[in-house]
Amino acid sequence: MTEMTAELPPGRRVRLSLDRDGIIKRIFMGVIALYLVAALALPLYAMLSKSFVTYGFDLARYEFQVSDETGTVWSEPVTAEALNAELGSVPADDLRSSSDGRLTATTFFPDFSFRSPVKYRMRGTTDDAPWLVGLDLKNTTDWQEYDSNTFRRINLRPVKSVGAQNYVEYFSNPTLFSSIQNSLYIAVVSTVLTVVFAFGFAYAINRSCMPFKGAFRMIAMMPILVPSLLPGIALIYLFGNQGMMKSLLMGQSIYGPLGIVIGSVFFTFPHALIIISTALSIADQRQYEAAESLRASKWRTFWTVTIPGARYGLISAAFVTFTLVITDFGLPKVIGGQYNVLAIDIYKQVIGQQNFEMGAVVSVILLIPAVVAFLVDRQVQKKQVSLLSARSVPYQPRPDRRLEALCLAWCGTMAVFIVGIIAICQYAALIRFWPYDLSLSLKNYAFDRMDGGGWAAYWNSIKLALMTAGIGTVVIFTGAYMVEKIDGFKTGRGLFQFLAMLPMAVPGMVLGLAYIFFFNNPANPLHFIYGTMIILVISTVTHFYTVGHLTALTALKQIDAEFEPVASSLRQPFYKLFARVTVPVCLPAILDISIYLFVNAMTTVSAVVFIYSTHTALASIAVLNMDDAGDIAPAAAMGMMIFYTNAGARILHALASRRILNRTQAWRLR
């Protein structure tokens, strides 16, 4: 007997209706997403569009007539193109120009004299044929008549076109193209050295019974507190043309790849160390006991157990270091000499030559390796698996005098290197006049007597750091909360996550140049913030958004998802749960985000070098400007002020955190 099964007719798809909290959460997430679009996506699009814009003089757009000496009889109209073909006055290569280019009209009239009674007529053959009469812009197809004295003040203006000519020109210029090779070489060498040094340091801290671990950890984090320009200044005093240890280089110059690599190892070391140390801190004791029972040598155990267990940390550290080095601007600017890299090319094109279109081209090229490194790192992290299970036994290092002596020597060498660089900068800041008057003085701290912004620049940095820490922490944590705790809305959450992760792959100089193209456009309704402290805050928060976002997500994922349904069942709005539960529980992460933003706002150079004004100059920019002006000792003094400020902020943060957390985190001890 066959059973008859009845099927229900298809009905409407069931959809959950949004409550008031759901709507508010979506609105908040939409507002922060809109901020990321305006502060990141749109500026990057404006920069990419600008890289395809070319300017050149189209001589076919202009026609001239010349009178006789009576000014009554006129010649037949002739285009500037025809005159140039006959005279060869302007080579084809010279017809390419920047947006601010000018070409004197008298170039096409070799017999021109401003004292002549001869008159000239001029018009455009199209609607887009601009020229200047002094400072007055003309653009008309009607004949305009000028006497000789006025005609000498006429300049043709370039016209805009769209194409890949800028990229062709860049890659056909051997000098500019070599910057790509130089940047990749510096980044690869620095990455290899930094990862090796950081791995040895992290291994000593996590896998040995070496003494003074706390002191070594503190020293290793010191480079984070200084701008990347500072190691360059220290290396100049050590190994420069009048350096105290110049002879150790045996004829080699510190100005160039050698100095950039040494300085890059200094300022990227703590970043690599944090990642590798995290990877090495997680290990299963049973794996090492198994290797020992199989009579594997320590060397073999190292390569078959330790390295595979830490491989994802090593890969992430390598990509982070590579990205930091290839996108850094401050260090190559101070000690790079004539060794061009991509970041310096952007600065030269924009600041030196005012060629914003070519600067955009270099920015796009610089963006490629940073994005590739970021994407590869993300793919590698997806393959990472848990190394600890419920049955795992935490690794406990055993005393080993030989290993401890080796680790102590390794960490001691790195500590001397780090402390030595900072100590040299402090020494340089106190010397009256290197190397002729080595007496100590505080005159280098009289910043108001130096070029660069004076003490006002330092206070501007304090203001920027406080605003960035306050506003940025609220924006970042709120955005992370909305994307983590919202129900459904998978597409919107995915788009928000993409926008939140994007800043990690965008170099600071690229972001700064993008801000010029986007916010400096008079047609942009946000144009009013250009040149103010607001745009510096937006730039800094956006530049360092991703790390804070990931920190907040990590903390939020530790909170049980049941809190939201319980609060909803009790008819409590989500903002009460947010204020009374989420924020207190996540307070350690919130405090970490705030100090991270503060420190980076004090040290950042690349993200703000293009968008600061005379009223918003910063301490890190003052270091750069004073170094440019030859005031290296005052530059070192300003760099040390940044260091002491960040160190003081760290100490105050630690003290305040301990007091606040003792009140709010007592539940963790139960």
From TrEMBL:
Residue ranges crossing the lipid bilayer per the database entry? 27-48, 184-206, 218-240, 260-282, 302-326, 358-376, 405-429, 464-483, 495-518, 530-556, 605-624
Compartments where located: Cell membrane
Which keywords are on file for this protein? Membrane, Transmembrane, Transmembrane helix, Transport
User: What membrane topology term does the record carry?
Assistant: Multi-pass membrane protein
**SUPFAM superfamilies named among the record's database cross-references:** MetI-like (SSF161098)
**Pfam families annotated for this entry?**
BPD_transp_1
Q: Which PROSITE patterns match?
A: ABC_TM1
Residue intervals of the ABC transmembrane type-1 domain: 180-377, 458-653
The record's section on Gene3D superfamilies has: MetI-like (1.10.3720.10)
Q: Which NCBIfam families does this entry report, sorted A to Z?
A: PhnU2 (TIGR03262)
What family does this belong to? Belongs to the binding-protein-dependent transport system permease family.
Q: What is this protein called?
A: 2-aminoethylphosphonate ABC transporter permease subunit
Source species of the chain: Defluviimonas salinarum
Q: What is the lineage of its organism?
A: Bacteria, Pseudomonadati, Pseudomonadota, Alphaproteobacteria, Rhodobacterales
